[in-house]
Amino acid sequence: MAIPPRTPPPPPSWSRYVTETVKGSHQFTVRGFSLAKGMGPGRHLASDIFAVGGYHWAVYFYPDGKNAEDNSNYVSVFVALASDGIDVRALFDLTLLDQSGRGRHKIHSHFGRKLDSGPYTLKYRGSMWGYKRFYKRSLLEASDFLKNDCLVMNCTVGVVKNRMETPKDIQIHVPRSDMGHCFKELLSRGIGCDITFEVRDEKVRAHKWILAARSPVFKAQFFGPIGKPDLHTVVVEDVEPVVFKAMVNFMYTDELPSISELAGSASTWTSTVVVQHLLAAADRYGLDRLRILCESKLCDELTPETVATTLALAEQHHCAELKSACLRFAAVRENLGAVMGTEGFDYLEETCPSLLSDLLATVAEVDDDPASLDRKRGVCGNQVLAPVESVEATERRTRRRL
């Protein structure tokens, strides 16, 4: 009689509970420290909001200290939870940077040391961790931490997260697609190219079928009802060679090339100017994703020197989100004067006078919108942060008088 095969035992089950920190950092610079003095105890300068571990945070710097009893002898620094959350556990690092280059930073850190009571717990929105007596002000003013009336602080937040690991969580790593790399290799080596573009004094070779797949303009030009599939040479006008090459590169890779690839190391073109021209080319050839990428990059690179020309470009090419971002950037009181002193603003006055009305309306909106005010100070509607309201209300009244 045959013996039936033994059934193999089931694999052992297991699980693992993991507690770890999700870390992120933010650098906060205070320029004009001497002018910030005299605000009064309990009033502070707030950093922009930054996100770590699914929560928003802000750094508060008190030039005259947080407590009146210290008689402005100390500066205070705190990290505040700027979004809704209950019992958020976190570790912190506050570092005042030594600007002499000797690396003698002033560091207050939870990381890398034993914590007898565990991570710090922030109970609700507006809860803060930090030091009322972060540094004695007389010593600070004579130290290498203050240079050219400027302080630089790094804040690192480590939010404590919990997760359960089981065999189901094990995944096979799938490499990223290399399709764009393969297509770019065809382009860079000229393999199978069947169309040449004459752009000023340069020639750019490419593949009609790839261009047609990416751009409705090229699709109609090469394979449309009145297209010319046997076309071998196209003269391109009104587009600079560096911009056209960058656009073709994007159509093969679906990525923006690096700034050095865009402009070249010897070029006098700035990153912003190249991306502005690239946005116009993307609109011309129906490359919606490239246009949006350019909008995003221009939005990230807004400065008082570039915002006026970017605003005119956004208006010309119907980029509503970029236009709104430019208007709100220019309308901020700290930026408006510098923007009005640029050549770009003069050009705006001459060519797009309607945008000046939009700018005035945005100035009034930024001035009076409570939500905009809350975003500036990082948090809102909390009794713990009442001193912030008094500071911002004073600033708002000042703006109205101006």
TrEMBL record:
MF (Gene Ontology): identical protein binding
Q: Which CDD domains match?
A: BACK_AtBPM-like (cd14736), BTB_POZ_BPM_plant (cd18280), MATH (cd00121)
InterPro entries given for it? BACK_BPM_SPOP (IPR056423), BPM1-6 (IPR045005), BPM_C (IPR034090), BTB/POZ_dom (IPR000210), MATH/TRAF_dom (IPR002083), SKP1/BTB/POZ_sf (IPR011333), TRAF-like (IPR008974)
Per the database record, which ranges form the MATH domain? 23-157
Q: In which pathway does it act?
A: Protein modification; protein ubiquitination
Looking at the record, the residues that make up the BTB domain are 193-260
Q: Which SMART domains match?
A: BTB (SM00225), MATH (SM00061)
> From its record, what is one biological process in GO terms?
protein ubiquitination
Q: Which PROSITE patterns match?
A: BTB, MATH
Pfam families named among the record's database cross-references? BACK_BPM_SPOP, BTB, MATH_2
User: Family, per the entry?
Assistant: Belongs to the Tdpoz family.
* Function summary: May act as a substrate-specific adapter of an E3 ubiquitin-protein ligase complex (CUL3-RBX1-BTB) which mediates the ubiquitination and subsequent proteasomal degradation of target proteins.
Q: What is the protein named? A: BTB domain-containing protein
Name its species.
Answer: Sorghum bicolor (Sorghum)
